[in-house]
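Today's session is about reading a structure prediction critically. Students often jump straight to the picture, but the first step is always the sequence itself: look for stretches that repeat, for charged clusters, for runs of hydrophobic residues. Only then move on to the predicted structure, which in these notes is written as discrete structure tokens rather than atom positions. Here is the chain we will use throughout the hour.
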Amino acid sequence: MSFFILDDIYSKLQKIYNKGEIFRDYIENSNLFPIKIKLKKVQEKDITNNYSLLLSQIKNLKKSELTIEYKEFEFKKLGKQTVPVAVIVEDVEHFCKIVDKKFYYDRFVENYHKVITKYPQLKELILKKPMIVLEYVEYWDRFFLIIDFFINNNQQNLYLREISLKDIDTKYIEKHLKILDILISNIKQLDTLKTIGDFAFEKKYHLKYPLAQVRFRMLDERLYINGLSDLTLCIDEFEKLKIECKKVYIIENKITTLAFPQLKDSIAIFGSGYKVGILQNTKWLKDKEIFYWGDIDSDGFAILSQIRGYFPQIKSIFMDQSVFDKFSNFIVEYKSKVTNKKLEYLTNDELKLYSSLSNKRLEQERLPFEFIKGNL
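Below is the predicted structure for this chain, in token form.
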């Protein structure tokens, strides 16, 4: 049996430190101290049955740096007895001595003033997340240079790779995009990014970033560009094209796109699943006759509905009940993420097939190539 366990007391104090409470107290003088931690209440039977153990633990308690609060109790058999009821940490110096954090506390104070002297707007952030000061204690001077660049430099049309700051390389900036966004956003009173994926940082701060690419094929030799039939362009360049085709086939699968038959006045675009959304601002597609071919599964119809939202004239090919039935021996089970999702841009026949699929799939690669050529 144990009554006054020092490790438990130190653990409670460590939690107070980990939460940054002593640092918030420094910033706001929030009257954190004195800190009182109540001890386990001692019963008369504890003294009677475990007297030597109790004395030993009180002795250990006295050896600690903690201030002990005692209280006198009147027991039936033992009469008046004085026992410890709480330990007290008087002030921050006392706290740091007990948990051995004086070095870190001093570093916090020094760097806190460095940060808010440079950017007083960060005070509220530090109050919420005080440990941020120590977490990046070795980084602040370089962070200041980067933050200054984004706050004071209005240059646009740059890649991160083109930013030149003393003793700071591109990899360093890329490694710290999340914390840099938090700091800059708090300084400029902007919403912080939920994710830095998909070049979110670059988009937010008006930097250049690698654009999505479109791969497409000319299915008619008369449409070749400088003799080239298979091309890949950044989406902004693709949007500027003026291809004198009449028909556009958007195909979910890459190999199927590459193998798609030659057709007069036609081109084929690799849709790449849900990434087909990058085509939505391609104005020259608005006047074309467009066909979409994806897998006969829930995702295939979800993609069809998505792209028909951009281009209402789109027709599906090889995505009907007759094809599903004809090649039923190739149907497999799979886990769909969009089963039962409402798809508003499907035709009645497409919607009926979609609703009946559940987790069934007929992939477009399963269809014989001769069947495809014979039914275009």
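Discussion point for the tutorial: The chain has a mean pLDDT of 91.
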